[in-house]
Amino acid sequence: MREDEQLAEQFETHRVHLRAVAQRMLGSLSDADDAVQEAWLRLSRVDVDAIENLAAWLRTVTARICLDMLRSRSSRREDLVGQQMPEAPCSDDDSGPEREAVLADSVGPALLVVLDTLEPAERVAFVLHDIFAVPFAEIAGIVDRTPVATKKLASRARRKVRGTPLIPRAELARRRQVVETFLTAARDGDLDAILTVLAPDVVRRADRAALPADAPAEVRGAHSVAQGVKDFGQRARFAEPALVDGAVGAVVARWGRLQLALTFTVEDDRITAYEVICVPERLARLELALIDGCASAG
């Protein structure tokens, strides 16, 4: 076997892990593929015999590439502050549903959205340590901090990811179950199941950008609201419960980017009101976190 073929074979044994790391750091399959490909190009330009631990070297290089990409992404977002947003920011684009499903299944919409609220170095430290159990000593070299400072960085990120629930854990679990039932029924288009979690006098409010042009911003009554929830079913495929400003809500994310947030008022295990938030300025002001505060490497 030729030397370059042997090197390529070695790299392929690490590709799945590197892609998983990059997906969680970048929240994008295409960006993750780009990062992993760049790691391969860098490997092909170095003396492999001088690398003591190929797995750790590749992970470090991939993480540094991801950190640079996150920093570049943050800079572009700062440039967009104050500019007018495009019309209908919540329009549905069904391109690439298979790839979206792969990312959602392996990572989860809520985790992607919450990770996107972290600073680049926080995100890298959290993903590597809390999801992939990489030692702080190794992460420190990636984020250019001491191990002690890196530990504090990950701790700060962890607090953001976990959030601060405003209600007791038992009540949080009950409300989460109500929201999960709501979302499942919406995905299935099951009108009867939707009605079981809606109070008779439920009120639905929504930003205009989240609705068809002729739909009212406010709807009252269980049957009227339930019909609208059925229409929400396609988007509900990309929805997941999350903490929204400390209460149980839901986020809808496509391609790792937040599109909608839903807030709920729940009384006696029924939804008495909910709001669909779509305006970018309003979304940016929300505090988002995972309900259970944990994440899986997948």
TrEMBL record:
<dbReference type="InterPro" id="IPR036388">
    <property type="entry name" value="WH-like_DNA-bd_sf"/>
</dbReference>
<keyword id="KW-0731">Sigma factor</keyword>
<dbReference type="Pfam" id="PF08281">
    <property type="entry name" value="Sigma70_r4_2"/>
</dbReference>
<dbReference type="InterPro" id="IPR007627">
    <property type="entry name" value="RNA_pol_sigma70_r2"/>
</dbReference>
<dbReference type="GO" id="GO:0016987">
    <property type="term" value="F:sigma factor activity"/>
</dbReference>
<dbReference type="Pfam" id="PF04542">
    <property type="entry name" value="Sigma70_r2"/>
</dbReference>
<keyword id="KW-0805">Transcription regulation</keyword>
<feature type="region of interest" description="Disordered">
    <location>
        <begin position="78"/>
        <end position="99"/>
    </location>
</feature>
<dbReference type="GO" id="GO:0006352">
    <property type="term" value="P:DNA-templated transcription initiation"/>
</dbReference>
<dbReference type="InterPro" id="IPR013249">
    <property type="entry name" value="RNA_pol_sigma70_r4_t2"/>
</dbReference>
<comment type="subunit">
    <text>Interacts transiently with the RNA polymerase catalytic core formed by RpoA, RpoB, RpoC and RpoZ (2 alpha, 1 beta, 1 beta' and 1 omega subunit) to form the RNA polymerase holoenzyme that can initiate transcription.</text>
</comment>
<dbReference type="InterPro" id="IPR013324">
    <property type="entry name" value="RNA_pol_sigma_r3/r4-like"/>
</dbReference>
<feature type="domain" description="RNA polymerase sigma factor 70 region 4 type 2">
    <location>
        <begin position="111"/>
        <end position="160"/>
    </location>
</feature>
<comment type="similarity">
    <text>Belongs to the sigma-70 factor family. ECF subfamily.</text>
</comment>
<dbReference type="InterPro" id="IPR014284">
    <property type="entry name" value="RNA_pol_sigma-70_dom"/>
</dbReference>
<keyword id="KW-0804">Transcription</keyword>
<feature type="domain" description="RNA polymerase sigma-70 region 2">
    <location>
        <begin position="11"/>
        <end position="74"/>
    </location>
</feature>
<dbReference type="InterPro" id="IPR052704">
    <property type="entry name" value="ECF_Sigma-70_Domain"/>
</dbReference>
<dbReference type="GO" id="GO:0003677">
    <property type="term" value="F:DNA binding"/>
</dbReference>
<dbReference type="InterPro" id="IPR013325">
    <property type="entry name" value="RNA_pol_sigma_r2"/>
</dbReference>
<protein>
    <submittedName>
        <fullName>Sigma-70 family RNA polymerase sigma factor</fullName>
    </submittedName>
</protein>
<dbReference type="InterPro" id="IPR032710">
    <property type="entry name" value="NTF2-like_dom_sf"/>
</dbReference>
